[in-house]
Amino acid sequence: MKFYFCLFLFLFGSAYSALAQEQRFEGSVILGLNAAQINGDDLYGYDKLGLRAGLNVAARLGKKSTLGLGILYSQRGSSSTLTPDNSLPRRLVHLNYVEMPVLFSFSDWYEDDGDFYHLAFRGGLSYSRLINSRVEFFPPFDTEQKNFAKNDLSFSLGVTYYINPHWGFSAFYTRSIFLLYNRDKHLNENGAPVYASSMLGFFLSFQTEYRF
To answer: How far apart are CA 39 and CA 200, in angstroms?
Structure first.
């Protein structure tokens, strides 16, 4: 985590210096919320809420397009008040990641008063590194958290609406490409999967952005 943070601070500082000289780069601070779930855990709904916060730097490719790199602290997982048969208490999966999204952005709806675009349509890939996890009231999966995939690659699609040149509000859909947990790799002493299903993570993000 320290390596990614130091690398991004270096890139962010370099881009911000270039911004002051050539106006080819822009930096932003991001603060928001994830609403997450996991496909395969028998829980339903985007009920696991978590923090999403960090920094982003974007290079201008053209008048309407940019390519951005971010580093974010991203909380994900799944949550349910009751199991489907209402027999067990609340079940929780807490997953904390350092996330590095690389997103292409195309802007539209130009505003003369302020010289900015109101809309930015974004899409790309995001690499995440799992830094810690916790499972509560979820047998037998609570013993399997050690087998969660440490690395995650996702695709992400979203849109940002800017109310002025600095402040924007975004919504994103992000879905993992690879499994969070592969049932076929983790077998018990009888050769059967410890947990019945493989798992795939996905989440919605709602965030505020302040652009320098």
So the answer is: 5
Question: What's the residue count for the chain?
Answer: 212
Residue-wise DSSP of the chain: -HHHHHHHHHHHHHHHHHHHHHS-EEEEEEEEEEEEEEETSS--SS-EEEEEEEEEEEEE-SSSEEEEEEEEEEEEEEEESS-TTS-S--EEEEEEEEEEEEEEEEEEEEETTTTEEEEEEEEEEEEEEEEEEEEES-TTGGG-GGGS-SEEEEEEEEEEEESSSSEEEEEEEEEESS-SB-GGG-B-TTSSBSSSS-BEEEEEEEEEEEE-
Q: How far is CA 14 from CA 44, 98, 176, 196, in A?
A: 43, 21, 30, 48
- Give the per-residue pLDDT at 211: 94
* Cis ω for the linkage preceding 140 (within 30 of 0): yes
In the structure encoding, which two tokens stand for residue 157, read together? 């699609």
Handedness of CA 31, 35, 38, 41 (dihedral sign): positive
Structural domain boundaries of the chain? Answer: 24-211
pLDDT tens-digit readout, 122-158: 999 999 999 999 888 766 677 788 899 999 999 999 9
| Residue predicted with more confidence, 163 or 88 | 163
Full-model pTM: 0.86
Where does 24-211 sit in CATH, by number?
Answer: 2.40.160.20
Residue 71 amino acid letter: I
Does residue 48 contact residue 36 with C-beta atoms inside 8 Å?
Answer: yes
